[in-house]
Specification:
By secondary structure, this protein is of the alpha/beta class. The chain has two domains: 34-222 and 540-551, Rossmann fold (3-Layer(aba) Sandwich), CATH 3.40.50; 252-523, pyruvate-formate lyase- activating enzyme. Helices cover 39% and strands 14% of the residues. It is built from 19 helices and 16 strands. It has helices spanning 77-89, 105-114, 129-142, 152-157, 159-163, 168-171, 181-192, 234-248, 278-283, 292-305, 331-341, 357-367, 397-409, 427-443, 463-471, 473-477, 485-496, 501-521, 536-551, and strands spanning 35-40, 94-99, 119-123, 147-151, 174-176, 204-208, 211-215, 258-261, 264-265, 288-289, 309-312, 351-354, 371-379, 413-419, 448-454, 526-528. It has a seven-stranded mixed β-sheet with strand order 2-1-3-4-5-6-7, with helices on both faces. It has a seven-stranded parallel β-sheet with strand order 8-11-12-13-14-15-16. Helix 13 links the parallel strand 13 and strand 14 (413-419). Helix 3 packs parallel to helix 19. The longest helix is centred in the C-terminal third of the chain and has 21 residues, at 501-521. The relative contact order is 0.13. The model is unreliable at 44-54 (pLDDT under 50).
C-alpha cells in the first residue's frame, strides 16, 4: 500500500551496488545475449484524447493536417543514455531503438516476429502502460525466454503493482525504479550474462521466491555520467525526427533538429535550494547538474556536428544561476561563460530550457546568448487556483506579463503550458482562464512555438494522485498496474471544482481553436495537450488485443 512520504532525494554512490564498468575480472559470459531493443512510447495509435506532440483534433477548425500522427520531435534521452552505455561497454551486443510514435504497430510486430530481441527495455508512461504491456506480450509470445524490463515514472513508482499484477506478473521480469537508468540497465545486462551478481545492480526491482525485491539506490551524480551520444542514432534523426521538427518548429529555429541532454535535474523551488515542494518530494528530486567542462564538448558536437538544438530537460534549469537561492548554484553562470568562449557555441542560441516565471526573470539576461526557448509552466493565471505548495506557483498576471515582455525584448521563443480545471475552479474563473490564454496567444504569437494546455493529469507521482489515493476509497479500489488517468481526472474535477468535466473539455476546445486559428494566420504557433489515456472504445480495443496476446503465451 502506498503512502505519501515526501523526502529529499539522496545523491551519491552507494557501495552496495556496482557503478564502474567494465567490472573487474569480467570473466566469460555464461549466457549469450544477441540483441537488446529499446522502446520509446507512445505508439502512433495511442494518440488518443490529446498528446504533447500536437493535440486532439478540434471539430470545426481547418488546417489540422499536421496534427495527425506527427510523431515526437526528439529521441528519448533516458533510453539514449542506456544505449550509449551499452555501445561503450558491451559493443558485442546488438541494439535497436524503436520510437513507436513514428513506427506503426504492424511494422513493429513484423520485426518482432522476424527476429525477436533477447532483452527489451520499455519506457512506460501512465497513459501508455497498456501499450507497453501489449509490446511486452508480443515479445514474450514470440520469444518466451526474452527478458522484459520496464522503466520511467509510471513503472518506477508502481513497480510492486506491475511485478505482481495480472499482466505484469506474467510479462515483466524487472523494473528500473530510480534515476539510475544506464547503471541499472548495464548492470542488469552483465548480471544476465552471469558476470555480475544481480544483487549489485542498483535501482532494480524483481520477483524472487514469491516476494518482490527492491534494490533502492541514491541517484548517481550527474557530473560522473556519460551524456547520450546521438551520433549512434543519426540515421533515425534523418528518417523520423527531422521531419517532425520541420513540421512543427523549423521556422522558429536556425538549427533544424532537436535532441535532449540530461544536463541538470531536480528543482530549486522554495526559499532555499534544499527545500522541496511537494511535487518534487514525491518524485524524489533535488538540484543537481553535470560538469560544464564535460558538457561543453558534447554540446559542441551536438550543435556543431549534428546541427541540433538541445532540450535541457531538467525540472528547473533556469533556476540554476547565482542570482537566486542565495547564490549557492552557479551552473548557468559557468555555462554562459563557457558558451561565450566556445567558437562553436557562441554562434548559436541553441537551448530550450525550463524555468518558472521567477527563475526566468532572474536568469533571462544571463542566458540570452545560448538559450533560444523558454519552456514555462504557467499552470494558471489566477493565483486562487494555485496551491501554496504548487511547483509552478506564480504571483498573478502582472508577474507573468512582466516575464513575457522581457522574453519578447530579449527575443526568446516561448513554449507555454498550463492546466484548466484546477481546484477551486468556477464557471466564471474557467471563462476568465480561457480569455487569458487566448489573449496571451494573440499578444505573443510571434514568440510562441506551442501553447500546451490540459486538464489535471492525475497520474502516480503527482500530488493530485497521492491525495486522491489517500482520501478516496474508489481510487484505492481502482489502483493497480494500469491507471485510468482520464477517469481519475474527471473524478478529480468533480470533487475539487464547481464545474463539470464537460465544461473543462469545452474550455480546452475553445483554447485549442483559438490557438490553431491564430497560428495559421501568422507565426506558426501550435496547440498541444497532455495524453491522459484512452476513451472507452479505444481502451476496450487495447484490452482485447492485450488479452488475446496473453491467451496465446
Amino acid at each position: 500500500m502506498m503512502s505519501l512520504r515526501p523526502v529529499e532525494e539522496i545523491v551519491g554512490v552507494d557501495p552496495r551496488y556496482h557503478w564502474e564498468f567494465p567490472p573487474a575480472g569480467r570473466g566469460e559470459s555464461r549466457r549469450r545475449i544477441r540483441s537488446v531493443w529499446y522502446f520509446g512510447l507512445p505508439l502512433t495509435s495511442a494518440h488518443r484524447g490529446g498528446h504533447s506532440g500536437g493535440g486532439a483534433l478540434i471539430e470545426g477548425v481547418d488546417g489540422q493536417e499536421r496534427y495527425r500522427d506527427e510523431g515526437t520531435v526528439y529521441p528519448h534521452a533516458g533510453l539514449m543514455e542506456m544505449i550509449t552505455y551499452q555501445a561503450t561497454y558491451l559493443p558485442e551486443i546488438a541494439w535497436a531503438y524503436h520510437d513507436l510514435s513514428h513506427v506503426p504497430w504492424p511494422r513493429i510486430r513484423a520485426a518482432i516476429a522476424a527476429d525477436p530481441p533477447d532483452v527489451a527495455a520499455l519506457s512506460v508512461y501512465t497513459a501508455t502502460a497498456p501499450w507497453a504491456l501489449i509490446v511486452a506480450a508480443e515479445i514474450k509470445r514470440v520469444n518466451p525466454n526474452a527478458v522484459v524490463i520496464f522503466g520511467n515514472d509510471h513503472a518506477g513508482i508502481l513497480y510492486r503493482e506491475i511485478l505482481t499484477g495480472t499482466y505484469g506478473g506474467r510479462l515483466v521480469d524487472f523494473v528500473s525504479t530510480g534515476n539510475n537508468g544506464p547503471f541499472t540497465m548495464l548492470g542488469l545486462l552483465y548480471a544476465l550474462q552471469g558476470r555480475l551478481d544481480l544483487g549489485r545492480v542498483p535501482s532494480l526491482a524483481y520477483r524472487r521466491g514469491g516476494a518482490v525485491v527492491h534494490q533502492a539506490a541514491p541517484t548517481f551524480p550527474l557530473n560522473r555520467r556519460i551524456l547520450p551520444d546521438y551520433r549512434l542514432l543519426e540515421d533515425q534523426l534523418e528518417r523520423h525526427y527531422d521531419k517532425a521538427f520541420a513540421v512543427w518548429y523549423a521556422h522558429h529555429y536556425e538549427l533544424k533538429r532537436m535532441v535532449t541532454l540530461p544536463l541538470d535535474g531536480g528543482c530549486t523551488w522554495g526559499d532555499k535550494a534544499t527545500r522541496r515542494c511537494k511535487h518534487c518530494s514525491i518524485q524524489g528530486l533535488t538540484p543537481k547538474t553535470t560538469d560544464v567542462a564535460a558538457a561543453v564538448p558534447v554540446l559542441e558536437d551536438v550543435v556543431g556536428g549534428l546541427g541540433a538544438n538541445v532540450y535541457a530537460a531538467g525540472d528547473s534549469t533556469l533556476g540554476f544561476s547565482s542570482d537566486q537561492w542565495g547564490g549557492d548554484i552557479t551552473y548557468l553562470d559557468e555555462l554562459a561563460e563557457a558558451c561565450a568562449r566556445s567558437p562553436v557555441l557562441r554562434r548559436h542560441r541553441f537551448m530550450l530550457a525550463y524555468g518558472l516565471v521567477y527563475e526566468f526573470l532572474r536568469s533571462a539576461e544571463l542566458c540570452r546568448g545560448f538559450v533560444r526557448t523558454w519552456n514555462v509552466g504557467l499552470e494558471a493565471f489566477d493565483p486562487r487556483l494555485l496551491k501554496g505548495d504548487s511547483k509552478g506557483i506564480n504571483k498573478g498576471k502582472d508577474r507573468i506579463h512582466e516575464a513575457l515582455e522581457l522574453a519578447r525584448a530579449l527575443d526568446y521563443k516561448l513554449y507555454i503550458s498550463g492546466i484548466v480545471g484546477l481546484p477551486g475552479t468556477t464557471l466564471e474563473l474557467l471563462k476568465s482562464e480561457v480569455d487569458d490564454w487566448l489573449s496571451l496567444a494573440e499578444t505573443y504569437r510571434d514568440q510562441i512555438t506551442t501553447v500546451s494546455v490540459s486538464p489535471p493529469a492525475v497520474i502516480p507521482g503527482s500530488r493530485m494522485y497521492w491525495e486522491m489515493y489517500n482520501d478516496d476509497p474508489r481510487v484505492r479500489a481502482g489502483h493497480g498496474e494500469i491507471i485510468s488517468t482520464s477517469r481519475l481526472t474527471e473524478r478529480y474535477i468533480r470533487r475539487n471544482t464547481e464545474v463539470e468535466p464537460a465544461d473543462v473539455a469545452a474550455a480546452m476546445a475553445e483554447i485549442a481553436r483559438g490557438v490553431i486559428t491564430i497560428g495559421r494566420e501568422r507565426g506558426g504557433m501550435k496547440f498541444g495537450g497532455y495524453m491522459l489515456g484512452g476513451t472507452d472504445t479505444e481502451e476496450t480495443a487495447e484490452y482485447a488485443l492485450l488479452n488475446d496476446l496473453c491467451s496465446r503465451l
